[in-house]
Structure formats: C-alpha cells, structure tokens
Amino acid sequence: MRTSRTVLVIGANGGIGREACLALKRHGWQVRALVRNLPVELDGIEWIRGDAMQRDDVLAAAQGANAIVHAVNPAGYRNWGGLVLPMLDNTIAAAKATGARIVLPGTIYNFGADAFPLVREDSPQHPPTVKGEIRAEMERRLAEASRIGVRSLILRCGDFIGPHAGNNWFGQGLVQPGKQVTTLRYPADYAHHHAWAYLPDVAETIALLLEREPELAAFATYNFGGYWLDGHSIADAVRRVTNNPNIALRRFPWWLTALVAPFMETLRELRKMRYLWKETIRLDDAKLVAFLGKQPYTPIDTALRTTLVGLGCM
What we know:
Blueprint: E1 6-10, H1 15-26, E2 30-35, E3 46-49, H2 55-61, E4 67-70, H3 80-98, E5 101-106, E6 118-119, H4 130-146, E7 152-156, E8 159-161, H5 169-174, E9 183-186, E10 194-198, H6 199-211, E11 219-223, E12 227-229, H7 231-242, E13 248-251, H8 254-260, H9 265-272, E14 282-283, H10 286-292, H11 300-310
Helix pairs in contact: 1-6, 2-3, 3-4, 7-11
C-alpha cells in the first residue's frame, strides 16, 4: 500500500497551478493549495489562505509536504523584479525545512541566441531580456540549493494553451476571449514555427515525473516539447475544431501595441518578448520522452477545442 503523499501548490488559482492540483489529485496525492483568495469550490483540495511573499505563510503551509509546486507569478507581469525572486526564496526555505522537492514550471525566456534553434537541458543561459535574466536566476538559485540538500525539478515549456491559461499569447494575441473566432492574428511570418504547451499535459507530466521521484537527480531538468506549429498549421487546426473553414489568418498588429503599450504593462512585456517570434526556438524533449517512455502530448485538435471552450470562443 502506497504511503500518503502531500503536495503544496503555491499559486493554485493560476493556470498551471490549477491543473497541477487536478493532476496530482488524480494520482493520489493529498493536495494543499496556498492562495491569497479562497475559491468557492473546494474540489477535495485543502485550501490555505496566505501570501507567497510571506515566508511564515509558506513555511506553515509546507509542513509535512513531500513536494512543493512553485506555480506562482505576479499577475499581469507586474513588478517581476520585486516579487519573483523573494517568492522563490521563501519556497526554497520551506523545502529546506521540510525536505520537500520543489517543482518549477520553467520557460524558454532564460535562453538566448547561443542556445537556439534547438534548446537542450544543458544549453547555455544568456537571456536577452530582464525577465529572462530573472528566470535564469531562479534556476541558478535552485541549482545552488540542490548542493545543500534541497531537491528540485524544472519542466521547461513553450507558450501555454489550455482551458485556464492566464497570461499567454494564444488567449491574448491570436484570439479574443469571449468572442467567436473569425480571425487568427499570428505574431510572426506564417511559416514561423512556435512551441506550445497544453497545460493539462504539463501538469500530468509533472505528476508522472513525481511518481518516479527517487530516480530524479537532485537538480532535475526536462524539456517539454509540446506542439511545434507554424501559423498555417495552427490556423488549420482552429478551423477544424470550430468547423469554420472561413477563419482568416492575419498578421498580429505589432504597430498597434507600440501605441498602446505605454498605458498597458501586459502589452509592454509582450513587446519585449517579440524575439520569440523572430527566432527559431524548439525544445528538445528527447530526455523527457526517454524517461517516460512516451510523448505525453494530447492531440492538438483536442487541446485547442478545450482551450477555445475555456476562453469562451466556442
């Protein structure tokens, strides 16, 4: 009989945090969630009101946890420099106190041109943006913590899609939430390929990796390849799932964001990441697939249908 396992999810009201709660619960974990605002539906999860910026809150919530999923991010990209690293430091302190393994959903922001076009787990990290530098520093701190016994797992992903995805290109750039899709606004040349990660698949992969936690390195990193699609392919998939062959593919209006960006922080941050739509950047997932023995990816049509329903576009 398996010993009961407890996971603390920090940022459970966000897209990846919510999906991680659901996936780990399916895999038999006792799920505890630290959030600032308690939800109406409890869903069999132990919800704890607290703030990831308050170390005492994180330490108290982590008592008895075997794993801590660090899925918290500042809303709307606000004050990344002042919030992201202190929140991670609190999680590291909690993991050190409890012996839990930290799980960090990673990104490709921490890589630069010397790692492109095929990013591997050990590719150099020389990011071209401040946000990328913060992401790289997060990984450096986890690597350093592993030398004093704090284990971690990083699953690096492309842009998120999914029913509850928060700040993401698909739901904020390609389509308009709450409106039937008539046009897809692609932020690059239509032949440009882009990496996408379906949130339920990411969460399920985290659960599968934690099932084999003793086999993981103290500082374990894996790339989540997801979908590698150009503009034509993603447009064709959206046309199929909406049963609307007349959906138009158009260019994303970067010129318009330049006018509005001074008044909207989210758009300012999106503009800083424009290089992701100019460079060829693909995550090499050979290590992950070899470890799991399979590609853990839902068919793209299923993933997009669920995403569009969640966004209110169908």
